[in-house]
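Encode chain A's predicted structure.
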Amino acid sequence: MKTQIPKGRKVTISIVKANVFAIVLMVVSAIAFLPPFFMIWKDRKTVSELFGGFGNWSIVPILMIAGILVHELIHGLTWACFARNGWKSISFGVIWKLLTPYCHCNEPMRIPGYMMGAMMPCIVLGIIPAIASLFVGSLPLLVWGVFFVAAAAGDIWMTWLLTKENRNSFVLDHLSEAGFYVIDEE
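Encoded structure for chain A:
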């Protein structure tokens, strides 16, 4: 079966540039959160309490992999709320050559709904945990938050690109590239 190319303007981002942006985001997030964290907690907890025991850090790789999968699930759950056909329009997969899981919405939706779905993992897995770490004094939680803000670099970049578009237009995920099609109403 031949795949039909959608009408609309194709907008894509470079994976290499997105990865560089992710590193910049990680550094900026660390600069934004680490000084307040240590100013708040340096006299309230010992260094070993702040860093947690080895047990806290030994499960980090497993938690990060689980978090990456949850990141994609959050995209899907949010986009399903805005897609006309709901959950039926959502698909998941893995780009094996990059070992990268992805979530894809198979139907166009209005730009604000798409932007919400794009940003929700950054908010839920990144920003909220980073802010929460300031209140509970957990450095592992802060590292988690900073990592998942950086993990949302491509989502943040694509959302920023969509701020330049007419909010009444539709957007459709690109099937094989990091990007989307903008479909203006006629």
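The first helix runs from residue 15 to 41.
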